[in-house]
Design a protein that fits this description.
Elements: E1 10-17, H1 27-35, H2 47-68, H3 76-91, E2 108-115, H4 122-132, E3 136-141, H5 151-165, E4 171-173, H6 181-198, E5 205-211, H7 215-219, H8 224-239, E6 245-251, H9 264-273, E7 278-282, H10 290-307, E8 312-314, H11 322-337
Parallel strand pairs: 1-2, 1-3, 3-4, 5-6, 5-7, 7-8
Helix pairs in contact: 1-2, 3-11, 4-5, 6-8, 6-11, 9-10
The structure holds the ligand C=CC1=C(C)c2cc3[nH]c(cc4nc(cc5[nH]c(cc1n2)c(C)c5CCC(=O)O)C(CCC(=O)O)=C4C)c(C)c3C=C and fe (ii) ion (FE2) (2 copies).
Length: 363
């Protein structure tokens, strides 16, 4: 808050995530919500709604098969709620109750979850936040790297929902944290024991695998790929392994458009040809869901076997690892303490996300 504004007494922290179907019947409407988002399908209506109807109908069957491996639903909400509880514990709910230095001094806080494409969506969460009556709202995406398709889309949906319910408290968005120390250390901690095991089968190659994006979106200024590259470099450096062999790659391609590469499956095949053990590190996801538990654990493991990869390991996501949650708590504390419209990750320097309109700052 600036000198002219009182220090906040009650802060609502809203965790953004994508959301996932909570039952087989929810798969198609979840997909419709995703493809009807103008940040994903960049067409005017009524064409976008038409396309969303067609694609969600076509994609529903393979997607339902994916979620069938997970008991017919996505575990993303439970995992996000566990992260919300861990962050709440770290921040403390009452003034002075936070764990150690991560607490919000003299400030009461409550952590909420808002999903973009399935429940609880922004409208539901914004009503709960309004009832809590905070004097500051901090929006914290569970996407370390900024993309117009994720963080910006969630921020826009939030703003619309907040306006609809008349939530007028000042709001700050933590745009991105691709190289935040807690996130990087927690990921490196997850990799180390699996790297040691893989090294018994040859010199491992680490595949830093992120959700892909259509090339057109990156060409129009989305900083996601650039930030993913910074994340991979930072984790590789934190591992401190001499001559570490690593590569950046992209998974989860959908539809006929050209996507950024190299693709994770191409990298798995290359490792097979070269007889190299691999570790797949999901560096743009911070909890487990279909893309990690099915695409990496089942589909890529199978592909690796077929391709002749001598050893395959999926590195778990950071989840509620204390260094990661501490890092999130630090970001929230900085945001509460500092009302300038600067970037969570880059401080006073301009964040690359600002080139594509990172909506960091106050409303
Ligand atoms: C054109 C389509 C898509 C873009 C662009 C896209 C970007 C994007 N998505 C995530 C994170 C997640 N996506 C998840 C599932 C998912 N994503 C798409 C499509 C696009 N995503 C679809 C169709 C689906 C559903 C599953 C499927 O049909 O394959 C998920 C998992 C949800 C869950 O299982 O709970 C996440 C997480 C990021 C980070 C991103 C761009 C940066
Ligand atoms: Fe996606
Ligand atoms: Fe930013």
């Amino acid at each position: 808050m600036s000198a002219s504004q009182p220090h906040p007494r009650r802060v609502a922290v809203v965790l953004f995530n994508l959301g996932g179907p909570d039952a087989p019947e929810a798969v198609r409407p979840f997909l419709f919500n995703l493809f009807a988002d103008p940040a994903i399908i960049r067409l005017p209506n009524p064409f976008r709604f038409l396309v969303a109807s067609l694609i969600s109908k076509r994609r529903a069957k393979p997607a339902t098969e994916i979620y069938a491996h997970l008991g017919g639903k996505s575990p993303l909400l439970e995992n996000t709620q566990a992260q919300a509880a861990a962050l709440q514990e770290r921040l403390g709910s009452a003034p002075g109750s936070g764990a150690g230095s991560a607490g919000l001094d003299g400030v009461e806080s409550r952590v909420f979850v808002a999903m973009r494409y399935w429940h609880p969506m922004s409208a539901e969460t914004a009503s709960q936040v309004k009832a809590y009556d905070p004097d500051l709202v901090v929006l914290l995406p569970l996407y370390p790297q900024f993309s117009t398709t994720t963080t910006a889309s969630s921020a826009k949906a939030w703003r619309e929902a907040a306006d609809t319910v008349g939530l007028t408290a000042p709001t700050r968005l933590l745009c991105c944290y691709p190289t935040e120390a807690g996130f990087i250390d927690a990921t490196a901690d997850r990799i180390r024991p699996l790297y040691t095991a893989a090294a018994r089968h040859g010199t491992p190659r680490v595949l830093f695998s992120a959700h892909g994006l259509p090339k057109k979106i990156v060409a129009s200024g989305d900083p996601y790929q650039w930030q993913c590259e910074r994340t991979a470099e930072s984790i590789a450096a934190a591992l401190g392994i001499d001559d570490l062999d690593w590569v950046n790659c992209y998974q989860s391609r959908v539809g006929p458009m050209e996507w950024i590469g190299p693709s994770t499956d191409a990298e798995i095949r290359r490792a097979g040809q070269e007889g190299r053990p691999i570790l797949v590190v999901p560096m743009a996801f911070v909890s487990e869901h279909s893309e990690t538990l099915v695409e990496i654990e089942i589909e890529y493991r199978h592909l690796a076997k077929e391709a002749g990869v001598p050893h395959f390991a999926r590195v778990p996501t950071v989840g509620v690892a204390p260094p990661f949650i501490d890092g999130l708590a630090r970001l929230v504390r900085q945001s509460v303490a500092n009302d300038r419209p600067v970037c969570a990750q880059y401080g006073d320097r301009i964040c690359p996300a600002h080139f594509s309109g990172c909506p960091q700052g106050r409303r």
